[in-house]
Amino acid sequence: MEKIVQDFLNIQPQMRKNEVWRFVDFSSLLTEELTLPHGERQTAEYRCNVPDMEALRMVVENGFCHQPASDCGNGVIICSLHDAIKHHPELVNQYLGHCITRPNPYQQLNSEHYTDGIFVYVPKGTSMPQPVQLQSVINAGHGLFLQVRNLVVADEGSHLTLIHCDDSYDSAAAFANNVTEIHVGQDAYVEHYKMQNLNNQTGLLNHTYATLEQGSSFRSVSVTLNGGHIRNHTEVIMQGEHCEVQAHGLYMGDGEQQTDNYIFVDHAFPNCHSRELFKGILDDTARGAFNGHVLVRDGATKTEAYQSNNNILISDKAFINTKPFLEIYNDDVKCSHGSTIGQLDEQALFYIRSRGISLRTARTLLLYAFCDEVLQQIELEPLRNRLIDLVKKRLHGELTLCSDCALHCSSPCNGPEVNFYIDTDKL
Description:
The protein contains seven helices and 21 strands. With 427 residues, it is α/β, with parallel strands linked by helices.
């Protein structure tokens, strides 16, 4: 077994004594078959499967970025982190590691051993006309232990849309311990979308650290479609007044999959707002966890913070641990938190079926309606439409085309297009 894999395993027993990491156990995925990457490259081109979306794409394949820097003009820098350290050391040294205010052993392991990643710098007052898409690809044909490091800097008054995709292109086991730092400058706006679609033998520990300066905004939406065990660990620190954070997530699991979401939002200054909405659907023996922590520090008056986690368990063997948590040291605030765990509403099912709709179609309609609130938080229309399609496919068997499905997808995977119309006015 690679020494770094053993080091990761040695960390776990102690970390599981910490409430934040109590439900995180990757032991079953960390095997002797995992090896470190050595710059393996399987293909020269990976295509984006989001129709009608133009984006500046950078691919990290098996832990390394093989692409040259993108020439965007206006002082924008998009390149591999390795090239950024070589050609822009003053920027990298200024920001790398500075978004991490609460280090943990997993993140420190990444800091010591990361192979490569992506560097994005948007200078003052610049608005990127196109999204930047970071595609993290696992495609080696054998087990890999990956550690990727990404650094994103949006300077004062800038605007950036970042799309982060985690994909596996084979069925080989793998594990990724990745860290992404995002610095949002004064009055800047960053949209960060995360899509995760990995095989059942792959584990992902995905750290995202974001710091916000005065007057800045940060929108984050994560959609977890598939994966053996995925942990999204997000920490957002507000370092000035009038900051706004929108953090949302949708996770879907079946079989023996596990999905964990942890988010920490630090309100250290007055007049800042945050809103979190996470929703999950779990079937079979899938397990999930949500741990949300909002800290309102002394002096952070006029804070508004809202946190919600809602879950639907399809089977009686699916399991969710949910813990929304507010820590408030002020009186002059508006804060709320809550969570729900349940099954589909039997009355709603009966009402839909009484209109002549099959049980399967009725269940699919209700599940999609449950997911739609999170999907509508995606402001980028082509991406939103594509994810709506993927969620519909996931709800009725992932890649299975169902001729009687009421949620017909616009890009079916197999077979001819089937039109199935429902007059919703009659529901």
